[in-house]
Amino acid sequence: MYWERVTEEIYLFTSERYARVNSVAIRTAEGIIVIDALPFPNEAKKIAKFLNTQGGGRFHSLILTHHHADHSFGLFAFPAYLELLAHERCRQKLLALGEKSLAETRRNHPVFDQVTLRLPTITFEGERMFVCAGNHTLRLLALPGHTPDNIGVYLEEEQVLVAGDAVMAIPIIVQGDWRREIQTLQKVKELAPLTIIQGHGEVILRGEVNTVMDRYIHYLTCMEEKARKLLADNKPRDLIWDIPLEACGLERVPLGLGSQQLHTANLFSIYDQLQAEREGKAGLENTAAT
Ligand SMILES: [Zn+2]
């Protein structure tokens, strides 16, 4: 794990063990607020210990951007009495899938035996919720697309957006919806943060935000066009394997996960959704005709 400071009061921790996933801490006069935790117990515990020292043992609360294991498992390392804030959809996802996902992970990595699943204790429905601590205002806002439950945390005073997986070096939508992800990226552009902390990988700095958001939006629309063309030409689904990531304007990134594999999975997911919609429409037309 390595760490850096984004501002005097915002700390960023990045995993060296899993996909450069990020965890963020904000030091406030009322204690430290932690957003997401790194999945591997040794990294999560190291961060909790470090922050405990930095904040003189004072924590304010924990925030979870979405239910995925790489953001949620490490939360066990923080004091059990802390409230965990998330979207209500995140709580529902964890209730439905969390224990199963943890049991599967334990089978492959016994080191996760020490992890206990942490469920959100304060949730919101709809678009936003505000958290105020010291002189910090945190706007929790729904940013669905990567998953339906993903939220971002906008630090109003610093104009820093902690985006969860709504913003990633390669937008991943296989468990979500690319159209919603496009809307979310538009929303992020309108918010116009100075800095974005992505769910994985490096910080998007001042002056880069618009260009990077446009690149991600282009990537998603380009994938839809490619999938639509294959369907319209009645080409085999397997041709998706031949479409490189670069054909949609992104570069391979050192996330520790195969960039091309992530991209191919995205394309299959969009293709299958478009095909289902086409068949659904044809089915409806047939019903109407009879
Ligand atoms: Zn995720």
Protein architecture, described:
By secondary structure, this protein is α/β, with parallel strands linked by helices. The chain has six helices and twelve strands. The protein has helices at residues 41-54, 69-72, 88-108, 178-191, 209-232, 259-289, and strands at 2-5, 10-14, 22-28, 31-35, 59-63, 84-87, 122-124, 128-133, 136-142, 151-155, 160-162, 195-197. Helix 4 runs antiparallel to helix 5. The strands form two sheets. Strands 1-2-3-4-5-6-7 form a seven-stranded mixed sheet. The chain has a five-stranded mixed sheet with strand order 8-9-10-11-12, with no helix packed on it. The chain is 37% helix and 20% strand. Helix 2 (69-72) links the parallel strand 5 and strand 6 (84-87). It folds into two domains: 2-219, Metallo-beta-lactamase, Chain A (4-Layer Sandwich); 222-289. Zinc ion (ZN) is lined by residues 66, 68, 146, 165.
